[in-house]
Every structure is written in C-alpha cells, then in structure tokens.
Amino acid sequence: MKSHEYRQETETVRGGTDLDKKNGPLSTPIYQTSTFEVTDNEEQLRVTPTDQFYTRYGNPTNTVAEKAIAELEGVDAALLFSAGMCAITTTVLALLKSGDHVVAQRDIYGGASKFFGQWLPKLGIETTFVDTNDFEQHARAIRPNTRLLYLESPTNPTLRVVDLRKAAAVAKERGLISMIDSTFATPINTRPAEFGIDLVMHSGTKFFAGHSDLICGAIAGRADLIAKIHGTRTILGGVMDPHAAWLLLRGIRTLAVRVQRQNDSALRIARFLATHPKVRRVYYPLLENHPERAVAAEQMKGGGGVLSFEVEGTGDDARRVSEALRLFTLAPSLGGVDSLVCIPVLTSHAMIGSEQRAKMGITEQLVRLSTGIENVDDLIADVEQALTVVKAMPEHAQVG
Questions:
Q1: Distance CA 219, CA 265 (A)
Q2: How many CA atoms lie within 13 A of 140 on its CB side?
Q3: d(CA 133, CA 292)
Q4: DSSP strand E in 171-233: where?
Q5: What angle do CA 119, 123, 127 make, to 5 degrees?
Q6: β-pairing, 366-370 with 279-283?
Q7: What is the pTM of this model?
Q8: Angle at 173 (CA atoms; ends 167, 174), nearest 5 degrees
C-alpha cells in the first residue's frame, strides 16, 4: 500500500493530474485517437510500451483516470476496462491457468458467480464457494493448487461486510492473491489495500462515473500484478474508450461529495424502513442489528449508497412496491445521482439459479434501492407511499 499525500476529497478532484504550475488545459484533454504518429521506426519501438502507441495498449486520457483511481485506493497502479465484468474476467484469466483453483465468497454479484461457477470450469479452473465470513471454511477450502481468494464487500444485494484483515491474513498465510469487488464501498468509504488486499476491482459504471451514462471496469493494486493484467488486456482487447474515460474522470471529481450525501441518505432511509410495519427485514451495514456492524464501523467511513429490504408479503408485493416508486427509477445499476430501484431476482442475480440465490439469502420479496443525491425527505416520502400497495401488516420489522 502507498501513502496518501492528500485526503480523499482532494484526491478525487486532483488525483492523477500534474500539480506543477504550467500553461495548459485545466481539464484533461480527450485523446480521441486509435493510433499515434511517430517520426521513425526507432521511435516506434520506443513508444510501443507507452500510452502513445495504440489505444488498445494505452491512451493518455485513460492514463490520467487510471492514476486517479490508483491514488484513491493507495496502490501502485490501476487499469481501465470496457466493463466491470471485463475487469474481473481479464484479471482472472491473466493470473490463473488450467488446473488452478479459486476460493470465492458465495455472496457475490450474479455475473461473477456465473463466471466462476460455469465459465472457468470450461478452462479447467475450479471454484469452491464459501460462506462470506466463515474464515475457517475459507482455510479448509484452500488446496495446494489454489491461487486466488475472491471477495466482495459490501455484498450485492444483501450488504454483508467482509472482515478484510482476516481475509487478507488467510490469503497471505497460504500464498494466495486476494482480490475484492469494492464497488459498493468506493475508496471514499473503504480502501481494501489498507487491510492487506492485493487487488481492488470496481465497476466504474456505478459510483465512479456517477451519472449512469457510461460502462467501465477498473482494477487497482500491486505493480507486478497490474503488469500481468495489462498484458492480457492488450491481447483480449477489453479497453475503455478515451471519451468514456474522460467522462469517468469528470465523475470522479465529484465522487467524494456524492458518496457522502448518499451515505447519509441511505442510512436515514434504512432506519425508516427498519421501523415500518410492512417491511420484514432491512439490509444496511450501519444499522444497529446488522450482523457485521462492528466490522463495518471499523472498516468503513460510511455505509454506502445502497440498501435492500424485504417486504412483508409476496414477490408480487415487492414488484408492486418497485413499480409504485416515483423518485426511485425502476432500472438496474446503482451509484448515480438518480435514485434507482430493482428486484435482484429479476436483474443482478437473474442469471443464477433459484437454489443458489436461496443460499445467498436473495428472495423474491427483496427490493434493492440505490440512493441518488435527491432530498432524502422526498425519497423517504416516496418509499412510504410506495409501501401502501403492500396489504400484509406484521407486528414488527426485523433489522438485518
């Protein structure tokens, strides 16, 4: 892990940029080009490993965004990809080979779960899924050919929080690479490298971009691992377009203020739902009865902008609630300035089987909310009116 010269709020605005006084553009230029001209072939050879050779290898606009993310996470380097899933798949393919084994949390994004459970076996790579915070089970699952420990925290959509110190200790003791999807946390709330995690992945589509207008993945971590991943990215070609990278940089500049607002709003909405008679259970890391609240309080500066809840009723009731919301737009994804709502069994985890979803605690009654930057009182009022469509009236909500 690298030391931080500035605090997160400053790094989001100025990270990745040259702070020396100079004459030039304040905003990073968009190098909207596929290739770069050179004076002669000697120069061609010199620039091949740089970001001014061919945009599949690198691009100056992308480089600034990658440096900004690396600074935020406090690590050596970062890489951008065309999507979050591309960041995951390229990283895993760069670091593993046929015959290797992965230990992964059971509670992870549906696309990642399908990749580890159904796609990697085609390449001769097995995955053992383990309970999120049962580290004795993690240790028992490790084999002589295990190479990677894959984590996600907070988890999508039930907001479990991983004890990062314990996870990193298991990985280091057994010589594994540890990799985490930290999309829900953002580096504003948690910096996994501070706890010993080797690689940090983000779906930059979400909080980094912040405006639901681009698709992006990012991986950040140790220089030696990033170099391997860069070589594989060059071959597979899942790079980010320079114009989208410029939009990403614009989003990162407001990341800290947006996440702080979303932290506050999500916590207030979660507390409102926790006392509502038509809500069976609420999932948010900083609620008093959350099973990992103590870990969340130690590791996180805020609980994040996403929360989930189960309605006291049926799956149809949950769908009706999602459709009755007006300020929460019915759409997949999260992390933007607009508040969104979705039903995880129909979106983020629709691609995996019902039996596997049940093991993850993802029910048909589960509703996921992503808080934007609207006024929180308006958002609470919207949730309150939407819940009137649920007919069941239990005695008391359970908080999780």
A1: 28
A2: 7
A3: 9
A4: 177-181, 199-202, 217-221
A5: 60
A6: unpaired
A7: 0.92
A8: 95
Query: What residue has token string 């320079």?
Result: 242
Higher pLDDT, 381 or 132: 381
Tell me the torsion sign for CA atoms 224, 187, 239, 147.
positive
pLDDT of residue 400: 55
> What is the tens place of the pLDDT at every residue in 138-174?
999 999 999 999 999 999 999 999 999 999 999 999 9
**Residues in contact with 82: Cβ distance below 8 Å, sequence separation at least 6, in sequence order:** 215, 216, 217, 238, 239, 240, 241
Prior bond of 277 cis (ω within 30°): no
Indicate if the pLDDT at residue 15 is higher than 80: no
Residues whose CB is less than 8 angstroms from the CB of residue 352 and which lie 6 or more positions away in sequence, other chains included: 110, 113, 114, 117
Planar angle of CA 94, 222, 203, nearest 5 degrees: 65
Q: Which amino acid is at 17?
A: T
Residue 230 in contact with residue 79, Cβ under 8 Å? Answer: yes
- List the catalytic residues: 56, 109, 181, 206
Q: CA angle, 341 as apex, 104 and 210 as ends, to 5°?
A: 75
CB atoms within 10 A of CB 350: 12
For residue range 256-314, what is the model confidence (pLDDT) as tens digits?
A: 999 999 999 999 999 999 999 999 999 999 999 999 999 999 999 999 999 999 999 99
Reading across the β-sheet that carries 77-81, which strands appear in turn? 77-81, 217-221, 199-202, 177-181, 146-152, 101-105, 126-130
